[in-house]
Amino acid sequence: MKSRKQQDNWLMLLVGNGYITLxxxxxxxxxxxxxxxxxxxxxxxxxxxIAQSPAATKENAERLFEEGQALYQKGSAxxxxxxxxxxxxxxxxxxxxxxxxxxxxxxxxxxxxxxxxGEKQKALDYYNQALPIRxxxxxxxxxxxxxxxxxxxxxxxGEKQKALDFYNQALPIxxxxxxxxxxxxTLTGIGVxxxxxGEKQKALDFYNQALPILxxxxxxxxxxxxxxxxxxxxxxxGEKQKALDFYNQALPIxxxxxxxxxxxxxxxxxxxxxxxxGEKQKALVFYNQALPIxxxxxxxxxxxxxxxxxxxxxxxxGEKQKALDYYNQALPIRxxxxxxxxxxxxxxxxxxxxxxxGEKQKALVFYNQALPLMRAVGDPYGEVTILDNIxxxxxx
Length: 396
Known about the structure:
By secondary structure, the chain is mainly alpha-helical. The chain has helices spanning 44-52, 58-74, 77-96, 100-116, 120-136, 140-156, 160-177, 180-196, 200-216, 220-236, 240-256, 260-276, 280-297, 300-316, 320-336, 340-356, 360-376, 380-392; strands at residues 4-8, 11-16, 19-24. Helix content is 76%, strand content 4%.
């Protein structure tokens, strides 16, 4: 089968030889004024009691907010959960003292944490609570940040047109309020969507609009993200050395700013390029550097992607049972985080292993599970790959 490649939101789907391997190209969610919630929501009477207590002060809310921010910046799965708790307490205090702007910022931030933890629907719930409050208080910059964040979630869920709708609402607001950093973040997000839709040159146009802005405002984390995304486009276009050049520019920046998730993403992407170049052992070295970082920061989507990619390498090396072991670790994680495109990818790859082992009927079962998922997320390239795999079995 002719090699075909595509980028799906933060996930770049590289399709070749019937396999689908994912290398993540991450998108920043903006500033720290964007994050999610825990299970603890007090009833109206409870918040009234808070308002009557001496602790119900704006100063205490701000202290809790800052404590949450410090925990968020640590970036581990445990500290992210702790940040949610702090922000949840801050949110209730902001509400109790009538600080709607503070409440909206905290709701947005709780959403961003849930997004980082892969809990996309929960993230949307909190963003959708934040958005009308931000509009009501006239916080245009905050409104645009939340619109951007909602766009990023829809992108991750495979709803590309919906993602574009939200990004295109956010972009003119960021320009109007002069927030160049978030303008660049949104340009990057739009580029990611166009790349996923197969419009690679359009994606590069948006990335190349974002990159000089990020450098001008000193947003090194955003710069690394965009360099990584440009690398993803060049990889998809078959320009592997150019892709490596951009990934190798991104990696030291991610490390310098302490962006462990971004570091893992770029390590994973470098591994993917080496795998494509046939340097399988080198690919494993990079994947095995990425995997523990994803686990440490609680990025389950990234963890599943890398498990899938390791499985692909072992399959290419002829170690089919080892490949199945990794695919079977990836699959339940993809389902747990609601990554339907990734789930379809791994189901397809399991089907290919069974096909190679001569278990054609078993292969067909997995392909037939993968196909409707790939259609549901609107991935025509992945759909064609799976259909070709089914035809190769004589399924049609």
